[in-house]
Design a protein that fits this description.
eight-stranded mixed sheet, Rossmann fold, alpha/beta, SH3 type barrels, disordered N terminus, 3 domains, about 25% helix, five-stranded antiparallel sheet, homodimer
């Protein structure tokens, strides 16, 4: 931290290099290194940063950290508009743009560095958004709402309910789309929850996160946000989706179906993957074009009337099976009044036969027991082997190609709608939000 | 089933077509369809098969099912050697080949159709192997051992111990390599277990399974077995590996490190993936060439003395965190005398703060609590966010890029070696069998 110099976060060699050219945060800087030229606005570094990199925000909204060596050429080419002070566009211009609400729940994407102090602020006002990502002013009239400010691992089904209710109230007021800024850790679970809680959607609901905060080199916060707001404002679908980077390039944002998406890498920007389904759509950041990747989708229709079903039952467990698992834990769930158990079985949907007695008892006591696969990809099929057929006979419900995480959320939602076992089973196996994909074609002749 | 005609499993149109040309199981058949010609040995179908496909075993060992339509041309081109009766190669020839033991534990790969009766037999004798996969006779002198005949979801740490002991006894007798036929469902867990239990290996130990039984169209049993036996006999490494198809083609078998491999699809033949590591080697089925894919491996050395450490502690739990998880289940594990808990946290290694008290208590009572990520890919890093640092302060041990399944097996193994907490922590964070990969290089300048 080095606030006096107007270069917060910079130290050592990087700080010296910037001082030599009288640079300040917000200045337009050109760095030439190994034949490559980078031009962008100088942004502050985090206090945990090293002393060797200078971070520029490039024109495309992407941040890049460049290591300064003795042979690196660094120039100040303009006192660029300081991002923190760039004014929002004049109201008369913004009035023509679609209305989008950005609901902030916390997470890396909702944190921003204050360009003047270098401090991290945990929330987004509309002006914060416009100043950090000026492109947004050209896309939509944004209303920013801070619902809460939580790391997403602390978000629970109670919060899903609040997010669903908040989203519904804005949709009923007539926004063209809703963006929900969310930590990435459990964004897949929340996306599934909203897919069930918000039925008959008239407009898109787009969750967005970032893997790197805006003050870090190569942050994906701005580009993901641009993609999410564009999708909320203009996408032709009216479903719950997750907007995140498609790959390492800065060209494409994928919009994944809320029930089929999973965080699959601890740190990569393309961590979210559609599992057992194609993404809903892709968005080209350069042209702004949104291309649907599936023919079957629910079209945007502002006249459609939203149905809100935000209740979730928390007494539902996700149990991953493993060799030597003690089945007594299943008894503990039953004894503790749990109403549902989602198993992450092996392969096509199996658990060791030493768990059968406990599962039988659970079913007998009215607990809904459902089967998914820890393979993640592929489809449960309990008709292939005897032991799968035994599990079906015990009353275990196979959930086809549903993600274990989505299955957990769905069972919580189902048991929030009904306490009646047969009705719950029927809801659980009904396709509400593309949580089941149609069977895929055989891989090869004869299969 | 239609035993009288010598065409077990065939019915309807397929049966009629075969009868017209007087075909019997074992005959060499040519089928021409849509310009493609298939030539192979007619094999029986499973009793669950449809009435439209004829299944041929092609020359490359691969089975294919071809749908018979009125325009399909089908010819008998030879009364090929009936596979069930093909004699093993003469002993004088086999004496020069390396000795490999095939230990059968069960699973799809260990089942075979008896060509005469169409019945499925659950075990492999050496002659069964030679007759189903005649190529094996050219590769190695095989000793076949039936250890047990279990669906792999029924395999527990007690069986890991038996497999390790059986493997060790054959290695000490001087075989050139060991193949372990295993159901695919939990083959990754067993591979990890053997990686820890069999230290200082002089020769390769190769686990192999199949996704389709030998009597089904496009079975991968023969090709996987050929790959596994070749690797056991000739591979330059002396580590535990899993041999399975690399892709949908029939050209390459990958040899994955036992600690870095995971079943990632319920049904595809290329279901096993190396996670956070490259596979150890690949084997070209056409040329037989084995190419190492990593420079760092333990070389085969028959003089090296195996160290057998086959004990596993079963009182270890794998707990996948999810939003709204009831932390009382952690208390239940502590109260039930569990000695270790592996958490599958979110993202970089997080759980909700509502679990902190229960984790604190677990650590206080001497339970080893370790953190992995449910993202599967990537590396746990609990220093990035405050909540990760809180977990470290509570005594939760971060397990870098280790797979959750491998972490579970390793903690079971560690607690089988020592009851002393500090020693257990030290063993848990020591790299024994490539369960930790070196940190990867940054994705981009400045990261």
């Amino acid at each position: 931290m080095n606030e006096k110099t107007g270069l917060p976060g910079y130290k050592g060699e990087a700080l010296e290099a910037l001082k030599r050219i009288n640079a300040e945060i917000g200045d337009l800087i050109r760095i030439t290194k190994d034949g490559t030229r980078f031009e962008g606005i100088l942004i502050p570094r985090s206090e945990y940063g090293d002393d060797k990199h200078v971070v520029l925000k490039l024109k495309n909204g992407y941040n890049v950290g460049i290591r300064i060596t003795p042979s690196t050429r660094i120039e100040k080419i303009g006192e660029g508009a300081k991002p923190a002070f760039s004014p929002p566009p004049p109201p008369e211009k913004r009035g023509d743009l679609p209305k989008v609400v950005v609901i902030s729940t916390g997470g890396t994407i909702a944190s921003r560095v204050d360009y003047r102090t270098g401090a991290v602020r945990p929330a987004l006002t509309a002006n914060d958004l416009y100043s950090v990502v000026p492109e947004l002013a050209e896309i939509a009239q944004i209303e920013a709402k801070i619902l809460f400010s939580l790391f997403s691992e602390n978000i629970t089904p109670k919060h899903w309910r609040q997010i669903a209710e908040e989203t519904a109230s804005h949709i009923r007021e007539g926004v063209e789309g809703v963006v929900i800024a969310h930590g990435t850790d459990t964004m897949g679970y929340t996306a599934a929850a909203l897919s069930f809680a918000l039925q008959n959607l008239p407009v898109p609901v787009v969750l967005v996160g970032s893997q790197r905060s805006a003050d870090r080199p190569s942050s994906d916060a701005a580009t993901n946000l641009i993609g999410a707001v564009k999708a909320a404002a203009y996408a032709p679908f009216a479903q719950v989706a997750v907007a995140m980077h498609a790959d390492f390039s800065d060209k494409t944002i994928l919009l994944h179906k809320g029930t089929k998406v999973r965080k699959c890498h601890t740190s990569r920007r393309d961590t979210f993957k559609s599992v057992n389904a194609k993404p809903l759509a892709k968005l080209d950041l350069e042209t702004g074009a949104i291309t649907m990747l599936t023919r079957e989708f629910k079209e945007r229709d502002p006249k459609r009337e939203l149905v809100l079903k935000p209740k979730f039952e928390e007494k539902v467990a996700l149990v991953k099976f493993y060799p030597g698992m003690n089945p007594a834990v299943l008894d503990w769930y039953v004894d503790s009044g749990f109403k549902g158990i989602v198993l992450e079985g092996t392969g096509l949907g199996h658990v060791g036969n030493y768990c059968f007695e406990a599962l039988k008892r659970a079913v007998r006591e009215g607990v809904i027991v459902a089967m998914t696969s820890q393979c993640i990809w592929g489809r449960v099929n309990m008709n292939v082997y005897n032991q799968g057929r035994d599990l079906l006979a015990l009353g275990v419900i196979p959930l086809e190609d549903m993600l274990p995480e989505t299955a957990l959320v769905k069972l919580m939602w189902v048991l929030g709608q009904t306490g009646e076992v047969e009705e719950a089973k029927s809801l659980l196996t009904t396709n509400f939000a593309d949580e089941f994909s149609p069977r895929t074609l055989p891989e090869k002749i004869g299969e």
